[in-house]
TrEMBL record:
GO terms for cellular component: cytoplasm. Gene3D superfamilies: Phosphotransferase system, sorbose subfamily IIB component. This is PTS system mannose/fructose/sorbose-specific IIB component. It comes from Enterococcus pallens ATCC BAA-351. PROSITE patterns: PTS_EIIB_TYPE_4 (PS51101).
Length: 159
């Protein structure tokens, strides 16, 4: 299977993803999965600029991403899937994409969120989605950068 890593990051592609994660995991393609971003040309242009040289980029709506992955379109590549929120990844899992582990990275703070770690902030809907992913057997870890120890995200969520 071509999926090497799956990460939730509100910033999508930025320094940590572009430099640290793609290098550590030897990624050849970054796939941003988000229905809204896939239709936003300005945001897509920014993502292209942030993508490291030599790494391919796909910015796809959820269903097209699932169809492409399941059709084996990326089987020869090392794929890093990035989504802004956990609901996008739950939908991929429900569509049959074999995701076994999700790295919960940065989720920005807003007036509606509560803090889980200094960089992960959630609303009740996110918690519900994380519980559903957990119930489907997806391992959830919190790990900001590759040098950090991966922590069990569900135990952080229940604190």
């Amino acid at each position: 299977m071509s999926i090497i890593g799956v990460r939730i990051d509100g910033r999508l592609i930025h320094g940590q993803v572009a430099n640290l994660w793609t290098t550590k995991l030897n990624i050849s393609r970054i796939m941003v999965v988000d229905d809204e971003v896939a239709t936003n040309d300005i945001e897509k242009s920014g993502l292209k600029l942030a993508t490291p040289a030599g790494v391919k980029l796909s910015v796809l709506p959820i269903e097209k991403a699932a169809n492409n992955i399941l059709a084996g379109k990326y089987d020869s590549q090392r794929l890093l899937i990035i989504a802004r929120k956990p609901d996008r990844l739950l939908k991929l899992v429900e569509l049959g994409v074999p995701i076994t582990e999700i790295n919960v990275g940065n989720m920005s703070q807003t007036d509606e969120t509560r803090s889980i770690t200094k960089s992960i902030n959630v609303v009740d809907q996110d918690v519900e989605v994380f519980n559903q992913l957990d119930a489907k057997g997806v391992r959830l870890v919190a790990q900001m950068v590759p040098s950090d120890k991966a922590e069990d995200f569900m135990s952080l969520l229940k604190k």
